[in-house]
Design brief:
Helices cover about 75% and strands about 0% of the residues. It is mostly helical and about 400 residues long. Helix 6 runs antiparallel to helix 16. Pfam families: Chromate_transp (PF02417).
Length: about 400
């Protein structure tokens, strides 16, 4: 009895806090090595933050992923912000975002200013990195499946979730799958009496959360009005990129059509310039939302790149700061825990679907690619090599095999 109580008490402890420098160092390395898009990023995050550094529990990580899937904006970036916030406070969230985002911002701005028209997608090193992303995501599905869908009922729910997302590959379907899985879990799953959510300290008050919600809604409503009243390119950019970050569900490539409708019809750039930036965005690590840096640089140089990047990510901060203080208390209720068991299984299914499309379909085209992916999967899963080393070796292997 006492041993069980002690174990549960240990599981309820607040995670050890870290320094801003620690958060910066880890997130920057991820920002330099996380190729492959949002699903791959979540795999890299899990490998680094859950398995290697144990900054948070597997279930807490899965619940953060589910929460960020609900919110508009770039889900993987929001997960990174949330982890930094839990680790080192509000500034930890900002530093985590900077570390993960800044490398691709710099690279894409450089493309915009000096390398327009280049075709980086033909590079062998990029092909190797995309294949490495297959192994990283497969490893994440493997580990999360064992922990979050360990029995027949939850494994079945994960599989149905994967099939639904594959058949209807839209951002709204991911949200619907999570909602249905949560209701299924609330109705049919029973929370274990011996399991308690791992306690995490949210360094934001509910008053602060309310302020964040007011700012989010106020900017979304009033920026278009101010834009109509004032013919200023900086205000127009703030409105366009902020609205895009506020209204896009699913993140990743889903953001591209909305951005295109904002920047090309306005005369800020041609369709060819837009597509050249899209090609460049495939060759850099980090979140797809940093494509805004390229667009901002085409419009207004370095200053425009920073302005557009800040504008498109600002909604992510406001939404997270508005949600997290309530998420910590809500998830402790028994009914919510049962619902979260279903949601966790759905997250595994969504990641499994992403392993096929877009990760597998974009990277695997030949038996050589399959062999390359199997070797990298074995190195990261059975040999326990770190993800950053896998990425480096995959880039070298891609140059040797595909150039």
């Amino acid at each position: 009895m006492s041993a069980s109580h002690g174990e549960n008490a240990h599981r309820r402890e607040t995670a050890t806090k870290g320094s801003l420098w620690e958060v910066w160092a880890v997130s920057t390395r991820l920002g330099l090595t996380s190729f492959g898009g949002p699903a791959a990023h979540l795999g890299y995050f899990r490998e680094e933050y859950v398995e290697r550094r144990k900054w948070l529990h597997e279930k807490t990580y899965a619940q953060l992923v589910a929460l960020c899937q609900f919110l508009p904006g770039p889900a993987s970036s929001q997960v990174g912000i949330a982890i930094g916030l839990l680790r080192a406070g509000v500034w930890g969230g900002v530093v985590s975002w900077l570390g993960f985002t800044l490398p691709s911002v710099i690279l894409l701005t450089g493309f915009a200013l000096a390398l327009q028209g280049a075709n980086p997608e033909s590079a062998g090193w990029l092909r190797g990195l995309l294949i490495a992303a297959v192994a990283v995501v497969a490893h994440a599905v493997w580990g999360m499946g064992k922990n979050l869908a360990p029995d027949r009922s939850r494994a079945t729910l994960a599989l149905f979730s994967a099939v639904a997302v594959l058949l209807w590959p839209h951002g709204w379907m991911q949200v619907l799958v999570i909602l249905v899985a949560g209701m299924w879990g609330w109705k049919f799953f029973k929370p274990s009496n011996t399991e308690h959510p791992v306690a995490v300290h949210i360094p934001i008050s509910r008053k602060g959360a309310l302020i964040a919600w007011i700012l989010f809604a106020g900017l979304l409503l009033f920026l278009p009005l101010l834009r109509q009243m004032n013919d200023n390119v900086w205000l127009a950019m703030l409105d366009s990129f902020y609205r895009t970050g506020s209204l896009v569900f699913g993140g990743g490539h889903v953001v591209l059509p909305l951005l295109q409708s904002e920047v090309v019809p306005n005369g800020w750039m041609s369709t060819g310039e837009f597509l050249a930036g899209y090609a460049a965005a495939q060759a850099v690590p980090g979140p797809m939302f940093t494509f805004a840096a390229y667009l901002g640089a085409v419009i207004k140089g370095w200053t425009g790149a920073l302005w557009a990047t800040a504008a498109i990510f600002l909604p992510s901060f406001l939404l997270l700061f508005g949600m997290l203080p309530f998420w910590e208390s809500i998830r402790r209720r028994p009914g919510i825990q049962a619902a979260l068991a279903g949601i966790n299984a759905a997250v595994v299914g969504i990641l499994l679907a992403a392993l096929y499309d877009p990760i597998w379909t974009k990277a695997i085209h030949s038996p050589l690619d399959v062999g390359f992916a199997l070797v990298t999967f074995a190195l990261i899963t059975f040999w326990r090599w770190p993800a950053w080393l896998i990425v480096g070796l995959a880039a070298v292997g891609g140059m040797v095999l595909y150039e």
